[in-house]
Amino acid sequence: MNPTSLAAHEIAKAVSQRKISAVEVATAHLKRMEEVNPKINAVVETCHQQAIADAKSIDNRISKGEKMGAMVGVPLTIKIVTDQQDFVTSFGLRTQEKNKAKVDSPLVQNFKNADAIIIGRTNSPAFATRWFTDNNLYGQTLNPTDKNITPGGSSGGASAAVAAGICPVAHATDIAGSIRYPAYACGVHGLRPSMGRTPFNNPSGKERYIGAQLMAVSGPIARTIKDLQISLQAMSEWTGKDPWQVFHGAKELNFTKKAALSIAPDGLNVCDEVVKELYDAADKLRERGWVVDEVECPPIRKAAEVNAVLWMADMQHGQAKIIETENEPNSKFVFEQMSEITGQIDFQTLMDALQLRLELMRNWDQFFQNYSSLICPVSAQLPFNQQADIASPGSFREVYEAQLTQRALPVINIPSLTIATGFAKGRPIGVQFAGPRFREDIILEAAFDLEKNIPKIEICTPTW
């Protein structure tokens, strides 16, 4: 049994049944990290000693017959933007390379309570602001499927680690696609929950501004849908440490398998390969008993505009000075391009955006009275070449437009999921599911059904 070839749920079952030890699992994944990480730079800090110690403790507790958590023995990684005791929460910034966390964030504690084993911390672009992953502190992350294309961002380290078999599950965050797009780019799956489903609290830093409070969430990246499901359950445990977290104790309600298919939402110019993948996914869902209607979804460009206003209000009023001090050229370029798009955000603009957000959320609530799920593009294009967003102002605008759904859906606070469906022109490809607020169960069910009709994701070993 090769532990690195197993899914997270398979590892948890095997470890709990003592078919394999937690130490064997952790050791195998740490060895895999040593083999492939130097080529892709996905994991920028390792937790080797603590991981082996945790694994030994798990094996000892199992031998005593103790009840174990749902992710017992599962190796995973944490993104460098989240507090983990005794590790630096750096956001890829040299100005924060000494910002060592004194305690775990509640989300990290939830993973530990589930008896998962943290083996490392994954890379992010500076300020976690791009769909590409590099920074002055740790350097560039490469996509294990092809070093010439982006691994995505801002959770590019997480997606690359999962794709390369360093871990079966990785923690990631998303405010404008940072879970869903890296999963798409690396050919794995990623789930962005509704805001309030998983807890957030970074005691090492200041409280967040309103844009991040309303749109930034943590979620899992994995190679199987079942692993997304069990990871979400572990991450979502009630903590009492995040005022935005919503307690979910009730059983999910029944739903009708009726999906809306939106090929080109709000006039998005979608490439032929993505169009074909969307139609194929719809046909495969129909084979599994879904009714799928091709319709136009509610307007999403306005939602994307709200995302830009909320995000840039945070950046302009909270981080502009830090951006200048850090002097990281790529994030500065992105900040400048976004400032040209939004202008300087004043109080009235911010208030208008918040008011519009409520209207948009109501429209989407009504849309989901008729459909339990939406099928739409993850991106309008196949994964971009490395650094495409900073090639020129025009190139930035092309990337920005292609990511319309990534920017829009967080504003209306609906869960969304990228499912990898294969390759096109040698690049990973997939589709996106979205559903009603707090109904992650629906989009997971859709993903389960589609997963039955697509190739299994194989671990990717870099060939360079």
Radius of gyration: 20 Å
Tell me the fraction of residues in β-strands, as a range: 5-15%
In order across it, which strands form the biggest sheet? 1-3-2-6-8-7-12-13-11-9-10
Q: Output the CATH class name.
A: Alpha Beta
SSE string, helix = H, strand = E? HHEHEHEEEHEHEHEHEHEHHHHEHHEEH
Instruction: Report the CATH superfamily.
Output: Amidase signature (AS) domain
Q: Biggest β-sheet, characterized?
A: 11 strands, mixed
* CATH-level-2 architecture: Alpha-Beta Complex
N-C termini distance: 27 Å
The total number of structural domains is: 1
**Record field, number of beta strands:** 13
Looking at how many chains there are and whether they match, the oligomeric state comes to single chain
Instruction: Using the coordinates shown, work out and report the CATH topology.
Output: Amidase signature (AS) enzymes
Shape: globular
The chain-level structural class is alpha/beta
Helix share of residues? 40-55%
Task: Quickly count the helices.
Answer: 16
- Average pLDDT taken over every residue: 97
Low-confidence stretches: none
